[in-house]
């Protein structure tokens, strides 16, 4: 009989880091920082308020490792030493509340808007739909090195660790996807070649940042040409590799069946909880909104939950669930004033209006 995981109990990672509870703040796009990638007071307030609200791990929004990899206006950057001072301020504040401070390393690739980066976006292969051009082999190697340099910069900034963003159709997904990646060199073709960049980045981060630094990887098993079987293979390889501490699987919906018909005998989540991940801890994201759903996910064998929507609605969502396992968040659409009280700037609230029926219409 398995022992029930309590949301408030600590979690210990293989690198020696520990989370005080089983709640991670999802890396949420918020468009609050400065256009040069430097931290704003608004983003600082939003994130530190979640640490104060007792999230065991507070993760930044996707932070780009190259200027050309910027994915949205107001994105927090980590591609230049000018960003270090702001990140030091942020990581120090997050850790002062007893939370782990983790930065997500990101590059949008073909999803970098031309009007945001001011130049042609890049991709593993030429992409007509987005107008992106193929990276040269030298540029692929530079991209690898810039991810590693960004991790070193993050470590200098005081973060406990990094998460490498390999999900949601961004550049590492674009390399892994046989639908997008049409390269014929050592970074294209077989799954081994298409995932080579991801593994080289992880190996480089571990070598440069040491064994005590927390390293995670985010993957998504569907959309953007991702195939469930291939993503599961990558998860097993990452576990066997022994160089990461956690896997963050973005399921879009943690309770759904797979899109691929041949795998619908079990839930999408079960495809990952059934894997032998060795010492690697597992978190999942996707519509985990209530106290009951938090416990339901933990009961499947997931080590900790990643919370997005409910973390926006309640900065202290972990406290509320730990005090009341049946806690249900504020109903949506939610008034702007509630979101302001929860630490969202007007810019962030404006971005949230893209989510259907999330922000109440103005009176």
Account of the protein in words:
- The chain is an alpha/beta fold.
- The chain has one domain (11-329): Alpha-Beta Barrel (TIM Barrel), CATH 3.20.20.
- It has helices spanning 41-52, 84-96, 114-117, 137-156, 171-176, 191-194, 196-209, 228-241, 268-273, 291-298, 309-313, 317-323, 336-341, 346-352; strands spanning 11-12, 18-19, 23-25, 57-64, 100-106, 122-123, 133-134, 161-165, 214-219, 246-250, 281-285, 304-307.
- The chain has an eight-stranded parallel beta barrel, surrounded by five helices.
- The chain is globular, with a radius of gyration of 19 Å.
- It starts with 10 loop residues before the first strand and ends in an 11-residue tail after the last helix.
- The model has no long low-confidence stretch (mean pLDDT 97).
CATH superfamily label: Aldolase class I
Record field, number of beta strands = 12
Kindly give the count of domains. Answer: 1
Do you know the CATH topology? TIM Barrel
How do the SSEs run, as a string of H and E? EEEHEHEHEEHEHHHEHEHEHEHHHH
Oligomeric description of these chains: single chain
Nearest-integer average pLDDT: 97
Residue share in β-strands: 5-15%
Architecture, according to CATH?
A: Alpha-Beta Barrel
Q: Radius of gyration, Cα only, in angstroms?
A: 19 Å
Helical percent range? Answer: 25-40%
Detail the poorly predicted runs. Answer: none
CATH C-level: Alpha Beta
Distance between the termini: 54 Å
Shape: globular
Q: Tally the helices: what do you get?
A: 14
Output the strand order for the largest sheet: 3-4-5-8-9-10-11-12
Based on secondary structure, the structural category is alpha/beta
| Main β sheet profile | 8 strands, parallel, barrel
């Amino acid at each position: 009989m398995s022992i029930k995981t309590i949301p408030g109990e600590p979690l210990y990672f293989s690198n020696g880091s520990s989370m005080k509870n089983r709640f991670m703040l999802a890396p949420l796009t918020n468009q609050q920082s400065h256009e040069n990638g430097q931290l704003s007071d608004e983003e600082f307030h939003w994130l530190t308020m979640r640490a104060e609200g007792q999230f065991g791990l507070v993760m930044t929004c996707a932070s780009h490792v190259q200027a050309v990899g910027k994915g949205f206006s107001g994105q927090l950057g980590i591609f230049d030493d000018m960003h270090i001072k702001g990140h030091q301020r942020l990581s120090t504040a997050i850790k002062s509340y007893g939370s782990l401070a983790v930065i997500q390393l990101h590059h949008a690739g073909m999803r970098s808007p031309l009007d945001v980066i001011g130049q042609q976006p890049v991709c593993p292969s030429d992409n007509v739909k987005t107008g992106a051009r193929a990276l040269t082999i030298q540029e692929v190697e530079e991209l690898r090195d810039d991810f590693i340099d960004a991790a070193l910069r993050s470590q200098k900034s005081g973060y406990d660790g990094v998460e490498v963003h390999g999900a949601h159709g961004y550049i590492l997904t674009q390399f892994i996807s046989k639908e997008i990646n049409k390269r014929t060199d050592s970074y294209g073709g077989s799954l081994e070649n298409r995932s080579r960049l991801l593994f080289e980045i992880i190996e480089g981060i571990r070598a440069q940042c040491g064994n005590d630094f927390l390293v995670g990887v985010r993957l998504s098993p569907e959309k953007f040409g991702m195939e469930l079987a291939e993503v599961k293979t990558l998860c097993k390889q990452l576990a066997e590799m022994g160089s990461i501490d956690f896997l963050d699987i973005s399921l879009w919906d943690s309770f759904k069946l797979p899109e691929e018909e041949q795998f619908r005998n079990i839930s999408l989540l079960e495809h990952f909880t059934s894997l032998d991940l060795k010492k690697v801890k597992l978190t999942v994201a996707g519509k985990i909104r209530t106290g009951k759903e938090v416990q339901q996910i933990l009961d499947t064998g997931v080590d900790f939950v990643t919370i997005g929507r409910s973390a926006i609605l309640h900065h202290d969502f972990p406290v509320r669930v730990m005090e009341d396992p049946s806690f249900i968040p504020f109903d949506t659409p939610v008034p702007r004033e509630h979101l302001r009280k929860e630490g969202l700037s007007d810019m962030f609230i404006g971005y949230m209006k893209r989510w259907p029926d999330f922000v109440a219409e103005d009176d």
